[in-house]
Design goal:
Layout lengths: L14 E5 L3 H9 L4 E4 L3 H4 L11 H14 L4 E5 L9 H14 L3 E5 L5 H9 L4 E6 L18 H17 L3 E5 L3 H10 L4 E4 L7 E4 L1 H4 L17 H18 L28 E2 L2 E2 L1
Parallel strand pairs: 1-2, 1-8, 2-3, 3-4, 4-5, 5-6, 6-7, 7-8
Antiparallel strand pairs: 9-10
Helix pairs in contact: 1-3, 3-4, 5-6, 6-7
The structure holds 3-methyl-2-oxobutanoic acid.
3-methyl-2-oxobutanoic acid binds next to β6.
Length: 285
């Protein structure tokens, strides 16, 4: 998936999305079949160790978007607008949009719709694709009284559906639904023309998104119900580190093949063979 035009809902084909925050992981996603990448403001939690997404800033998002773009040059890439970035003046909102788009994003994700309809419309009319985000919106964690499943009553489900229709009307090309009952997500998905991307929202959504670290099991202590762990990355990496440690302690690393031998007298002089390249995909690092 290379552009917003590929981002279509289809009864035959769901959309897969994964979060990503750095160039190394992005290169792995680039090599995978996963459709598209979200540089989520969850970066504040997964990469910076915060307990909420609130400390994410526009500068932080742009920094990580640029790194991900270098690692994944062809995947469709969405950036979150972080906490309150779209709630100040239109000028500051557009500066935030510009920062993440210039860094390499092809779309922005915006949490919530109440009070943001005109802003989303303006961003879309400026030529920037927007994906909405409703249900559990982590930037409102304190307003919601914690990270809790949303729309758990018929009335709250009706309100969510009405919000979703407004997100669509504002011009969003898709909608993330986070932590809502499957029945509500199915209702919203059926009512919309744009695709829904679920996380903890059941199987009826048009696609799914998971956090890279969660699906790879890199965080041993984080296991919400909606995550499926496709690998035990924590154990895999810890065991590799322990093997490296043991080799160093025992003196078996580095071996001769991992070391440089002194050139023979004939070949002595400045080395001509680079140890590794200094040229990145974009030119010189
Ligand atoms: O920030 C994020 O990673 C997200 C996804 C979980 C949807 O918003």
């Amino acid at each position: 998936m290379k552009s917003v035009l590929d981002f279509r809902r289809s009864p035959e084909r769901k959309i897969s999305m994964v979060t990503c925050y750095d160039a190394t992981s992005a290169a792995i996603v680039e090599a995978s079949n996963v459709d598209c990448i979200l540089v989520g403001d969850s970066v504040a939690m997964t990469m910076h160790g915060h307990s909420t997404t609130l400390p994410a800033t526009v500068e932080m998002m742009a920094f990580h978007v640029a790194a991900v773009r270098r690692g994944a040059p062809t995947k469709f890439l969405i950036s979150d607008l972080p906490f309150l970035a779209h709630r100040g003046s239109l000028e500051s909102t557009m500066n935030a949009v510009r920062a993440v788009m210039v860094a390499g994003a092809q779309a922005v994700k915006i949490e919530g719709i109440d009070g943001s309809f005109e802003t989303i419309k303006h961003i879309v009319e400026s030529g920037v694709p927007v994906i909405g985000h409703l249900g559990l919106t982590p930037q409102s964690v304190h307003g919601l009284g914690g990270f809790k499943v949303q729309a758990t009553s018929q009335a709250a489900g009706d309100a969510l559906l009405e919000q979703a229709l407004r997100v669509q009307k504002a011009g969003a090309f898709a909608l993330v639904l986070e932590c809502v009952p499957s029945e509500i997500a199915a209702r919203v998905t059926a009512a919309l023309d744009i695709p829904t991307i679920g996380i903890g929202a059941g199987p009826a959504c048009s696609g799914q998104v998971l956090v890279f670290q969660d699906l790879l099991g890199l965080n041993a202590s984080f296991k919400p119900k909606f995550v499926r762990k496709y690998a035990d990355g924590f154990t895999f990496v810890t065991e590799a580190l322990n093997r490296y440690h043991a080799d160093v302690i025992e003196g078996t690393f580095p071996a001769p093949k991992e070391s440089y031998a002194m050139p023979t007298e004939k070949t002595q002089g400045p080395s001509t063979e680079p140890v590794y390249s200094t040229v990145s995909k974009e030119g010189h690092a």
